[in-house]
Design brief:
mainly alpha, 83% helix
Length: 235
Amino acid sequence: MPTSAVSYRTLDLVAILKTVRRLERRISERFPGSGLLSICHELVGLAEDVQQRAKAIAAPNIALRAAVYIVISAGIVGLLTVAFGVKFQIGSTELLSVLQAVEAAANIVVLLGAVLFFLISLETRLKRNRSLRDLHVFRSIAHVIDMHQLTKDPSSVLASECATASSPQRTMSAFELTRYLDYCSERLSLTSKLAAVYAQNLPDPVVIDAVNEIESLTTNLSQKIWQKITILDAS
């Protein structure tokens, strides 16, 4: 029972990839050789890359974490050295030397804290930069999907059209156009879900904001598509 509950609280990359591949097959069966199918091939490739990249992001950086332990050990050794020196100087009642030893210990603590802060935050920054580069690709994919549906005008099948020499070719029936637009909406939804995997593996505020931005973008684009579908269904 606990395993089942946990599985519904996280995105399953395997299930998302199966859905993307199923969508690819559906598009190939209805619109073979179309640009819609080509962009779906690209989405499948991105989904497969996300599986590998998500694991890499979640994995700890062993080299950086080893460096943190080395710095902590070196700092402890330095503080112990100063502490033993202070004991020795107290015996000789040289107050100036004691103050110098305390100052040295304070400098070690400050330096140790700065180095630790840099090393501990470095791993997060590296993962954040990798995630943001990948998320930029999903943002671009969303705009490409929008370009595919841009010329799919419901009026082309609902009313007689006086085409010009530069008019796009519109040969789809109302049913085919509806399916085409629905496939575009599905691809936008899957694109946002693939982006959300990065926030799931790296709950960094910057990454979460970037994922939310992609979610808003795909939602707005999908709303435009569903307005067209609504017009077709109402006819």
